[in-house]
Each structure stands twice: as C-alpha cells, then as structure tokens.
Amino acid sequence: MAHLEFDCETIADGASKRTIAIDRLIIAGWTGRDREKMEAHMAELEELGIKRPDKAPVFYRASASRLTTAPEIEVLAGESSGEAEVLVIRDGDRLWVGLASDHTDRGVEAYDITVSKQMCDKPCAPALWLFDDVAPHWDQLVLQSWIEENGTRTLYQEGPLSAMLSPGDLIERNRAEGGSFGERTAMLCGTPPARGGVRKSASFEMSLSDPVLGRSITHAYRSVEFPSSE
Q: A Pfam family name for this chain (predicted)?
C-alpha cells in the first residue's frame, strides 16, 4: 500500500492537503482512440524488441507501493525510460485526476511486459484535481513531457487527451474483463507517442495542462542507475 500526500484542488473549495491510501494500482496500455497513432507507438516499441499486444487496451497490475512523489528514483542500469500519463485515483466517493510516469525497464519489457511493470517506481505529481471539475472539457487537457539530451531540454511527448480513451471508458473496459475500480484504486491511463522514438534520459519532466481553467500539474524527477552487482 502507498500513503501519499497530495494537494487536492476543487473549483468549489480550492486546494487542501490530504493523505490518500492506495492499495491497488492498474496500468492501462494501448489506450489510443486513434488507431493510426496507436500503431505508431506500437512500432516505436517494436524497434526495441517489444512485441505488440494481442488486444487493446491491456490492463496490467503493479504494486501500489511503486507510486512515489519523490524527486528521484533508483533504476537498474540499462534502458529504462519514463512516459507521461494521466493518473486517476478513487478515494471514497470521489475520483481524482493527477499526473504520473510509467517508468519502465525496456530491456525487461522486451521479454515480459508484466514483469517490466514491477521493475521501476512510478513517479507522480503531488497534486490532484477533482475529476468532476475537468470532465466537461476532458478532451482539451494536454499531456507533455521533456527529457534532457546533450544538456538541452527536449520536448519528448505532447498530445491532447482526446487521443486516448477516457478514464470512464477504461474503468468500464477493465470491469468487463473482471477487474474492479473501487476505493483506494489508482490507474495510469496511457501515454502519447514519443517524438523521435523511445529513449532513456536521467531527467524527466512532465505536465498535465488544463487550458480551459488555466492551470497545470507538473512534476520532474531524476532516475539514478545502480549496477546489477558490486
């Protein structure tokens, strides 16, 4: 289980700090509405030796304790990388929206995607919006991420949420497959394609922007590699 402190913001009440317990984490993959763009993302991963799924979307389980708001994570030396995703959390009778990175070991993903989802921590921003406040203009929200290449901040991902299935759709599809999304459950909801292909970077910065209400959730973290043996 993860116990994380968030700044939870609602239009009616403003922001307030609260600790949310999460004991179930679902990672949704291949969530694109646009089949052509989803094929592009599959092609990116196939270049890394990662087999495309038999169906889409796909739902993986990961340990909730992998969620962290820390600015630094440790990863096994190799080819791990981040990807910006919407995070949704059910807490009591409310659904909250945030931002997370499905940081994944690409070497392990090439032979076992399920195992790869357990290999790395999943950094998330310490801020949440009430889902009901953004639901009317959900498709206008924008995900972005940046990496550092040769000392330069480089745009790595960018796309509106209209390109991906909505949280409600994903929750219902997961339920249709025997899953559940009860209290203390979190889901990562998929990611836009990487510009220039999937690649590693020690630093990863991400943003979820709401142009209608004029606000953003941002988070940055670094991944520190350690060797498999001394």
A: DUF2848
Q: Which residue has the tokens 């700044």?
A: 7
In sign, the C-alpha dihedral spanning 67, 88, 199, 217 is negative
The per-residue pLDDT for range 49-105, each reduced to its tens digit, is 777 777 779 999 999 999 999 999 998 878 888 999 999 999 989 999 999 999 988
151: left (phi over 0), alpha (psi -120 to 50) or beta: left
Coil, strand or helix: which one is 40? helix
Asked if 166 contacts 88 with a C-beta cutoff of 8 angstroms, the reply is no
Q: In the chain, what is the greatest distance between 2 CA atoms, to the nearest angstrom?
A: 54
**Structure pTM?**
0.91
Is CATH 3.40.50.620 the classification given to domain 2-224? no
> In terms of DSSP H, where are the helices of the chain?
35-46, 106-109, 113-119, 131-134, 167-176
